[in-house]
Amino acid sequence: MSSRIPHRIEEPASPEGGSRGAGMAVVPNLRDTLMPFADSVPWPVVVVDEAGLVLYVNDAMRAAGKSVPEKGRRELSHLFPEYFAAMRGTPAPWLVQQEFVVTRSVAPSLEIHEHVWVRRLPKGACLIVVDETRLHHLESAHAQTARLASLGFMLASVSHEIGNPLTAMHTMLQVLQSKKNVAREDLERGIRSVASNVRRIVAITRKLNAFARASTESAALFAIDAAIEEAAVLLGYDSLGESVQLIHEPCADAWTFGHVDQLQQVFHNIFLNAAQAMHGSGTISVRSRVLERSVEIAIRDAGPGLPEDAKSRIFDPFFTTKPSGEGTGLGLAISYEIVHEHQGSLVAANHPEGGAVFTIALPRHAGPFA
Ligand SMILES: Nc1ncnc2c1ncn2[C@@H]1O[C@H](COP(=O)(O)OP(=O)(O)OP(=O)(O)O)[C@@H](O)[C@H]1O
Ligand SMILES: [Mg+2]
Fold it and tell me: Would you say the C-alpha torsion 258, 264, 269, 270 has a positive or negative sign?
């Protein structure tokens, strides 16, 4: 055991080798209990003190090539800059309970993905690092397969939806070509029709591209409140969205794990539908709450509610009740896919007092301040 001593910064032992309270069990000191325990776990562990100095790294971390130098700088930010950069909270992020995923390159074409948990200890904190590279590859492959499968499911409707405007354009061009002297009026009508069909195709391909593209953000712990606020800001840039009122009852405990940009897209789609249903005037109320294992977000508008005959079809790709050129019918279909990819659910109903209510449930994760 003495060969391990150089890797450790010893804390002064109490005279009895532990602290003893009247009539209480012996509580061994940190060195006697924590270090053998940390060395026995198969995951790399880093122990820091309250000032952010690395006191100790366990056997698994040393096997991964990182040890605590006997001399020189021992700040966490210096020895583990990638973990430090990913931490949240000030002024001492290492004392804030949190979890995050760090992706780093260890060779030109080799990236590793580590899930890091930061947990408080009596006189500091520890970082527990789990290499999830394999899991990450499996999940990415699975997510990509699921995306391709749902795109495949949409494909038949896509070719239909894109085929219609293409046929209309083709016919219109044939008509215009077959005429020797096309009247200016007919020509203008023809150009307007082609332009509107092109707009529709562009709108469909844009939405599908945004969905098919892998997320730009890596999966991470994020606050539901922050995603909602971001989507609300985006809504303000829409001509109908800027005039509606959005009331958000925040819930600081609502945290989940995933791709924040995709979930923002879901909130944005639902907010935009609400603004469109209310013709740009009225209130959207957003309420988040935490349940034992999930986070629930209810979004209610003051519009006419979901049409009775359309309720069961609103999540179908290309289902829309909006006039041609105004809706592709993909917003909710894509949102549904994204929420399910995050192991969540998305349901819609009409509120007894009026308006539509969309409820999203996502797995609950402990936030950094838990
Ligand atoms: N808040 C709402 N109130 C009433 N009806 C709604 C509401 N949200 C959605 N719907 C109905 O669900 C349909 C499908 O919505 P979805 O967002 O998928 O497509 P869209 O809004 O028509 O087009 P896109 O979002 O692709 O531009 C809408 O056309 C509308 O009939
Ligand atoms: Mg929509």
Answer: positive
Distance CA(119)–CA(134), nearest Å, equals 24
How do residues 152-203 score in pLDDT, each as one tens digit?
666 767 787 888 889 989 988 888 888 878 888 888 988 998 998 898 888 8
CB 276 within 8 A of CB 260: no
Any ligand 1 atom below 6 A from CB of 319: yes
Check pocket membership of 321 for ligand 1, CB cut-off 6 A: yes
Q: Report DSSP letters for 312-328, one per residue.
A: GGTTSTT---SPTTT--
- Indicate if ligand 1 lies below 6 Å from the C-beta of 317: no
d(CA 117, CA 126): 8
Helix, strand or coil for residue 367?
Answer: coil
122 Cα to the center of ligand 1, angstroms? 52
Q: Whose CA is nearest to atom 7 of ligand 1?
A: 273
The pair of structure tokens assigned to 343 is 């192991």
Ligand 1 atom nearest the C-alpha of 355 is 3
Please give the distance, rounded to the nearest whole angstrom, from the Cα atom of residue 271 to the centre of ligand 2: 9
**Which residues, 6 or more positions from 117, have their beta carbon under 8 angstroms from its beta carbon?**
98, 99, 127, 128, 130
**Does 356 sit in the ligand 1 pocket, CB within 6 Å?**
yes
Which amino acid makes up residue 41? V
Sequence-ordered alpha helix ranges (H) in 71-183: 76-79, 81-86, 133-178
Q: Is 262 in the pocket of ligand 1 (CB under 6 A)?
A: no
Cα 175 to Cα 186: distance, rounded to the nearest angstrom: 10
Distance CA(258)–CA(227), nearest Å, equals: 11
Determine the Cα–Cα distance for residues 341 and 248; give it in Å rounded to an integer.
Answer: 25
Q: Is the CB of 314 under 6 A from ligand 1?
A: yes
**Which of 205, 314, 350 to probe ligand 1 with, by most ligand atoms within 8 A of CB?**
314
Helix (H) or strand (E) run with residue 198 in it: helix 184-212
pTM of structure: 0.63
Ligand 1 atom 19: residue of nearest CA: 329
**pLDDT below 70 — which residues of the chain?**
1-31, 144, 147-154, 156, 212-217, 369-370
Of 96, 50, 54, nearest to 75 by C-alpha is: 54
Sheet of strand 110-121: strand arrangement: 54-57, 45-49, 124-131, 110-121, 98-107
